[in-house]
Write a sequence for this structure.
């Protein structure tokens, strides 16, 4: 089956062409101003993103990994303090814990929603635990209400890794909602090009509703200084540049539209694929909207790699996020975890398959992908 447009995991080119005049003009303004680092565009973007997050403070930085590191630095944890997170995520979440000489404690993933399994969290809390980092994997929030309740009970910080979930809503039992990344003490976001709100290079941001933390985060991301050349904290150099801020400020206006486009594609996939016995379509939790950073299937009966190869042979990309859970990664063997320690994450690593997902998928492409999947199972 041939489509007019080649099917890609992510189509940033068409997305750019659709808003090219606006983006080009915003970039040109930065070039004319020659204010390349920090400056007006960064401030405007931070303010607009803050409004989008219903008033949470926004501090931009160099990338999502830096956002996580700076967030943990702002909490002034001591070496050996324990930080709880999940083994089924991108490496950055664990990496920053290690870099700061903190002790990562992993809690297995939930087999339905792929996020940290809240029912297994409390038993991992010790007198050394200081912080929990839930990851809103693939664009659906972890159960923040339950996590915040535990955190309050044990006086822990919660740092949300919202790098895949900008724009998703966490829905509380009382009917109110808050944007992903603005629920915990600190939220971290990435503007990597393929993320929900993607720059034309690297970028990141930290969110917090606590003004004291916000000031500290801002200082730490800029060499620990509040007043120029007076250094109150040990910091890093991690800044968003003006060109990226200008691009992101244009694209922020389209973020809800982009999320809608992803959700429509997801519903199309659901509709066409849910009848297949060998496949589980993404499970939706009642406490979160799903921004579909990824549309991730579970393929049962050990057929995942066969399906992936069949799709690739038919010019359809499909990706495995993530093939090796973090506790089994070579760099982290010193943590002394073994195979079997996190059975859900280990099983997911063998069963998940993410289909093409972006803002520009058309019906012809979606139909081709779904038909090819059906052909694989029916042949
Ligand atoms: C992308 C991502 C990061 C890191 O963001 P970068 O901007 O690439 O540094 C961290 N955590 C998760 C879950 C991510 O998806």
């Amino acid at each position: 089956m041939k489509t007019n447009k080649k099917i890609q995991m992510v189509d940033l080119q068409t997305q750019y062409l659709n808003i090219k005049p606006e983006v080009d003009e915003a970039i040109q303004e930065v070039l004319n101003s020659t204010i390349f680092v920090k400056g007006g565009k960064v401030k405007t973007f931070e303010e607009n993103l803050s409004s989008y997050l219903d008033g949470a403070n926004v501090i931009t930085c160099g990338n999502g990994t830096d956002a996580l590191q700076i967030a943990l630095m702002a909490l002034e944890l001591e070496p050996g303090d324990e930080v709880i997170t999940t083994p089924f995520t991108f490496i950055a979440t664990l990496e920053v814990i290690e870099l700061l000489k903190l002790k990562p404690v992993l809690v297995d993933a939930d087999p339905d929603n792929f996020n940290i399994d809240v029912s297994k969290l409390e038993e991992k809390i010790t007198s050394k635990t200081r912080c929990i980092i839930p990851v809103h994997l693939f664009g659906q929030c972890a159960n923040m209400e339950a996590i915040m309740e535990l955190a309050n009970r044990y006086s822990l910080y919660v740092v949300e890794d919202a790098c895949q979930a900008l724009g998703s809503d966490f829905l509380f039992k009382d009917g109110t909602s808050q944007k992903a990344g603005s629920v915990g003490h600190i939220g971290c976001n990435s503007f990597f090009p393929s993320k929900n709100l993607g720059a034309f290079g690297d970028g990141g941001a930290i969110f917090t509703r606590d003004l004291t933390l916000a000031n500290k985060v801002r200082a730490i991301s800029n060499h620990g200084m509040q007043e120029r050349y007076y250094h109150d904290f040990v910091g890093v150099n991690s800044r968003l540049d003006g060109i990226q801020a200008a691009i992101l400020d244009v694209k922020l206006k389209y973020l809800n539209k982009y999320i809608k486009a992803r959700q429509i594609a997801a519903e199309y996939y659901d509709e066409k694929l849910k009848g297949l016995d060998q496949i589980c379509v993404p499970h939706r939790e009642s406490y979160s909207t799903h921004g579909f950073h990824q549309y991730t299937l579970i393929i049962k009966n050990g057929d995942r790699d066969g399906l992936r190869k069949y799709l690739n042979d038919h010019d359809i990309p499909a990706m495995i996020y993530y093939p090796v859970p973090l506790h089994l990664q070579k760099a982290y063997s010193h943590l002394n975890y073994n195979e079997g320690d996190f059975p859900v994450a280990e099983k997911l690593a063998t069963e998940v398959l993410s289909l093409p997902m972006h803002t520009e998928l058309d019906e012809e492409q979606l139909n081709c992908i779904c038909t090819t999947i059906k052909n694989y199972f029916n042949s």
Summary: The chain has a mean pLDDT of 97. The longest helix spans residues 255-273.
